[in-house]
């Protein structure tokens, strides 16, 4: 996910009084709502206020962009993801989140609540009742209406001072500095016409490359007169100013720019140029025009950019969406959007066993909102493509902490979208993985049996291997390694070319290594893990390689080879960090702590153990690995406590548990972290 605090703009103009008021409210209240009309700058003000809390008060801050949600169905998963809670439980989601958050000192920012007011009200009320140290900062065009809510209004910028400064800075950035006295006078008049609304000012500044201030003022004034005549004097002047500026900016765009503006409104989240090309390009808007129009819309403040991704502000998107409907293009635009993201998911699945794996895990995380939008569209049509896409996406999402969404989409698609047998087998398997990772072994077993039966019925060799892996995983977590080994040995024995490194064979070979270790056949397990690790490393793949390292580290611990155990555990943690697998990192840190303790390295062992506890808490999982890890974890705690003494051991645990996880991880992993 985008780190909202990695590039906080340092050019917040004015707002000193609002920032002071916000700081006081956030220090003494548990719910503060920043209200104001669209485009007035609520999000930017909230970003600066939250960053001050983060930097100066030392509190954890989470930011949830609600503007990307069409309805409240994904509200809770988005908030949980923002907070860093990858829910691996099968209880009520809001109860799991509230339980995990209950003792934490957090500031949660809910940005753009106005289209989800009632749902946000219910969620915030529930979280506040269970989390006494949680503070919520909401931005909305209206208060949430909760008892104890402190409302801070966001007013437009003063038109003779801060508004002129904003317009001048944006003009200078475009290479049109307002240096003459008459320019400043004209700028002040324009700011008054636009009521000091920051978004209106930025969009007006975007036109300075092709028009003078006087021309812009004339266009704005004449259109404001028309708007007042159309809506009457009762229409709020702030709304008229913003609506007029957006409409006027749209009118001044080239036809190709207006068309791209409309088509880009189908994106829910930030998008890159490649996505824009595939979704928006056609004979009316060829690739060269799309690229040129992206640049033009950014210059005109229709789009903003974060790194290599563009974003359209929700107020501007609403306008584009209206025009998309007027053009009659919305159904086709949504279909193109869904086809593009489905094709990318297919490619990610096909390249899972390659050096592109980590890229795809990052891309899928960054594209989460639009992947949900694509699935929503495909599911609404009852298309088999929806089941295919959710089945291919399920494993990525399960590793990335989106178990709830993966399970919900898979269940919905299985119920509503008829599809070929092989597609159903893959979806059943993916749903089974989500169930076993949530600790629901009974449901997972039923799905494994259904998956196996359907795979055998349609002679789907890949599906049979996946079903065997799922069944083996259930056996391993239940402490039955012999049954797990039998399941995968049978499947691999029946599969043609079972030694090939495909995704399904990697899964089964890995389960076989786990089963051998669990039965105490360490030599055979080590040989299998080394062979699998080499195959995965040759292809640049990290998921299978990291779990092979996990087994090699565990075997080395059992054989009193602590140096090898540390090296393999570090490699395990690195691999899981690369793909964003919190559950896997927690497993790896437990093993790394045990290996460091066996090596006699007390403080790093305690820090690794504490960070592992933080991550286990963040997944809320009742099952912490296979049963053989339990004694290893207990021995680690005893050894580390003996090395440091109880008082020092507890102090290291407490300090590591409250510090930034990435900082603690960097200290544990060593000076070469993060790896390239």
From TrEMBL:
Domain of life assignment = Bacteria
Q: Which SUPFAM superfamilies match?
A: P-loop containing nucleoside triphosphate hydrolases
Give the protein's recorded name: Regulator
In its UniProt entry, the species of origin is given as Streptomyces albidocamelliae
